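Tutorial, part two.
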Amino acid sequence: MSYAATERFGMESAPGGLALVQDLLNTIGVGGPSHPDLLQAVQSAQEWLNAALERWAESTGAGLPPGIALTERDLTRLRALRNRLRGGLNHQSPSSPEPARPGSEPTGSLLLTLTSDDRIEVRPEGRGGRWVISALLGETYDAQRNDTWRRLKICRYEKCAVAFYDRSRNNSGVWHDVRICGNAVNLRASRARRRQLP
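Running the prediction step on this input gives:
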């Protein structure tokens, strides 16, 4: 199993559980039919989720609840969470086609348990889509607490907007692929400068 939403853009996944959040962010539709929005329909969302959660459980050692079956309402909530997180990474307000209704803020629950070896174990709570949102918010919280959240970024090339994990030493990356996105932006800027010359 893999993080298919991220890998379809030819990228490495973020480390640990943050890869699940990155994969949610990369369910967006980019570049027409070759990269559709995986949260557009229940069937594609369910296929994405099944593979992503299996990979997440394998890489983190977390347990999965039996049989998560997404509904249309779950898709609305997952898209809202995706938009909020993407907006935060871009330092912008989310531009969601689905306006937020009172009480529709993405929320989840985490259960803290003291294990037999005196460690605190954190597990998502809820059923179905609510459990999924709890897992995603838990991983986001963990990344913010461990200071890896700042390395999860949105490519600055507006035609791309893919979420990538910046592995550069000084955390200075702005493109998910410098050769593709960076060159496209730099070429456009160069042409604009030439047009302004007398």
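Confidence is low (pLDDT under 50) at residues 93-97. In part three we will examine how such features are distributed along the chain.
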